Structure formats: C-alpha cells, structure tokens
Amino acid sequence: MVEVSTAVRRAKSLYEVLRVKETASAPEIKAAYRSMAKRFHPDVAPAAGGADFLEIHRAYRTLSDPTARARYDLSIGRLGFPVTGPLRSRRWETDQCW
C-alpha cells in the first residue's frame, strides 16, 4: 500500500489523484472517490496517517462541484488557454455603457 499512497501524494492533478479521465462524468468521479476512500480512510489504514485520504477528499470536493470543477479546469488550462489571474465574474452594472 505504500506504493499507492506515494502515488496519491505525487499526483499532478486532481484527476490523477482520483485516477479518472478529465472527461469523467459525475457518477464516475463519485465511484472513484468511494473506491479510494474505502482503501485510504484513516479507520482502515491508520498507518498512512490520513494524509492520502485528505488529498482524495480535496480532489473529490473540487471535482464533484460543477462550478469548482470548471474553475479548476480553467486554472490548469484544460480548455486550451491557461488562466494567470484570478477568475472574475462580470457584473451587469459595470458592463453597461451609459
């Protein structure tokens, strides 16, 4: 189990943490999370210290929320262009030309 736990910590993206493709659907992400959580939960694998479980949970929390996932995808440049600054939403009041 040491090999797997090291792989979780060294993963480059949240998709790699959960071992799913970037095109994975919500049910696929949930199934991957539940499968990995069963192996890495601190109650099941107390020797790991829970760090792997926290990383898995963080990845799931981001990828299971459609808004957070879209922001994450933009931040890693998944849509073809990297985002360097913070994501800002446009406001109707400031976008109008008076």
Tags for this model:
Chaperone protein dnaJ 11, chloroplastic, J_dom_sf, Helix Hairpins, mainly alpha, single chain
Secondary-structure map with pairings?
Layout: H1 2-9, H2 14-18, H3 26-40, H4 51-64, H5 66-75, H6 92-95
Verbal overview:
The protein is mainly α and 98 residues long. The chain has one domain: Helix Hairpins, CATH 1.10.287. The chain has helices at 2-9, 14-18, 26-40, 51-64, 66-75, 92-95. Helix 3 runs antiparallel to helix 4. Residues 13-76 form the J domain.
Count of domain modules = 1
Strand content: under 5%
Rg measurement, Å: 17 Å
Number of helices: 6
Structural class, from secondary structure content?
A: mainly alpha
Mean pLDDT over the full residue set: 79
Shape: elongated
Main sheet makeup = none
- The CATH superfamily is identified as DnaJ domain
Distance between the termini: 63 Å
Number of strands: 0
In CATH, the architecture is Orthogonal Bundle
Order of helices and strands: HHHHHH
Helix content: 55-70%
**CATH overall fold name:** Helix Hairpins
Low-confidence stretches: none
Under CATH at level 1, the class stands as Mainly Alpha
